[in-house]
Amino acid sequence: MSECVMEEEERAESVVPSCVSLKSDRSKDYPYNFGIRPQGSPLKCQKRSASIGDSSCPKGEKKRRTELQTADLNNSVSQGGELQEVIEGHKISLKRRCEHVTEGTHEAGSGTLLNKIYTELYITEGQSEEVDTQHEVRQLERTSKKNIRDTPIKCQDIFKVLSEQQRHIRVVLTNGVAGVGKTFSVQKFSLDWAEGLENQDISLVLPLSCRELNLIRDEQHSLLSLLHVFHPTLQKIRAEDLTVWKLLFIFDGLDESRFSLGFNKHQLISDVTQVSSVDVLLVNLIQGNLLPSALIWITSRPAAAYQIPPSCVDRITEVRGFTDSQKEEYFRRRFSDEGLSKRIISHIKASRSLHIMCLIPVFCWITAIVLEDMMTRDQRGELPKTLTDLYSHFLRVQIKRKKQKYGGKQRPEELTEADKELLLKLGRLAFEHLEKGNIMAQFLQEGGPHGDHLFMIN
Ligand SMILES: Nc1ncnc2c1ncn2[C@@H]1O[C@H](COP(=O)(O)OP(=O)(O)OP(=O)(O)O)[C@@H](O)[C@H]1O
């Protein structure tokens, strides 16, 4: 999909690390969030403390030890309670950030509820074999018609052992093309967990966006300090807690990572307090040298997934997008006006290319934005039937929204000379980068009237 999208409020703020906030501009909105179900941490602490005893001790020493054990136990119990609080706080904060997606001109955090618009995705275990070089409409058409022998799997089940042949699933790699819903899946998985609905055997879910990890690429960290940086609510968590709890690390958007993950040659790290470069920490986590019992979920566009050696991966899944009935469900959920959703659905069904492209959720979103605008406000124009039509209208709607949000003297529909110049420059930039084979690039336009703007060719 070649699109040049202006990054603005259209994307939800990344819910991952709040302290290193960078507005996302991948397919659109994102966020994550996590919670925890402490698996009785005080109990585990008690066990650890109680094992200190040694029957071969002399009497005085034994008494002293007993006293020490009791103190340690009390300490652990109170720390366990404190830990529980920290975890609950983290859960609440992540839930808050995960439950909304910010779209349109909504202020960050006040957008649509994820659960209102989230539509079940078609996810399979396994992945398509070949890299497809056909035009994307043909590609998608073939994909949707392909006799898929891979097994459908629900997002919330990706770490579950589903058949007798399967062993423990520690590392899951989820592939999917741009805009197919990988980040939304991460967000939904996290929200369900934070709300206590799914995967409650996991103590702590830790989402880390690869894009945001890039920001500390040149820094040295231990795994513990890295967590503190990206999840400040977990400041009080200690090294030993990480080994006791069942953790899930989620690395979303491997394709955006600028790390070179050297799986063949790297420093071995098994201590969560040992400082190293971030890429070395990631490799050790994925390989299981560091926190061997932690679960790891990596999402990636297919072209970048090769970075993870197959030997490290216990399960590969692929987000395939929406089936035909899920496409309809998406539009029904999105619009409370039933008449409008019916009209949109029948328009999409009548246009072969739009219908095929709506396999990809982000395309459903673009279609929804454009058709809603045209059907409710601008009824004169002919509805777009081709992709070029649709993208042109999308650009127009985005410019209009930007003007509505930031104000301005001219009518929102009108393009100023400056708008036209900017659009032509963006077009030229996109074209030049596509010619160079850069299918994804970000540019920062500094000093704009409303601060910096991030543009992405994607
Ligand atoms: N399950 C879903 N229900 C409703 N809308 C969805 C769903 N999945 C994705 N979308 C829509 O598609 C957009 C893109 O999804 P998402 O960001 O999750 O894609 P992605 O696979 O992570 O893309 P990229 O590889 O570009 O990061 C979302 O912002 C949302 O508008």
Gyration radius over CA: 25 Å
Name the beta content range.
5-15%
Structural class: alpha/beta
Gross morphology is globular
| Nearest-integer average pLDDT | 76
- Low confidence ranges: 1-26, 28-78, 445-454
- Give, in spatial order, the strands making up the sheet with the most strands: 5-4-12-6-11-9-7
Query: Could you tell me how far the N terminus lies from the C terminus, measured between alpha carbons in angstroms?
Result: 7 Å
- At the fold tier of CATH, the topology name of the largest domain is Rossmann fold
Tell how many strands the DSSP assignment holds.
14
Region (Disordered): 43-66
Protein name: Nucleotide-binding oligomerization domain-containing protein 2
Domain NACHT: 170-304
Organism: Takifugu flavidus
Can you tell me about this structure?
A hairpin with a 2-residue loop joins strand 13 and strand 14. The radius of gyration is 25 Å and the shape is globular. Helix 2 crosses helix 5, helix 10 packs antiparallel against helix 11 and helix 13 packs across helix 14. The chain is of the alpha/beta class. The strands form four sheets. Strands 5-4-12-6-11-9-7 form a seven-stranded mixed sheet. The protein has a three-stranded antiparallel sheet with strand order 1-14-13, covered by helices on one side. It has a two-stranded antiparallel sheet with strand order 2-3. It is built from 15 helices and 14 strands. The chain has three domains: 241 residues, Rossmann fold (3-Layer(aba) Sandwich); 91 residues, no CATH class; 39 residues, no CATH class. The site of adenosine-5'-triphosphate (ATP) has 23 residues, from helix 5 and helix 13. Adenosine-5'-triphosphate binds next to helix 5 and helix 13.
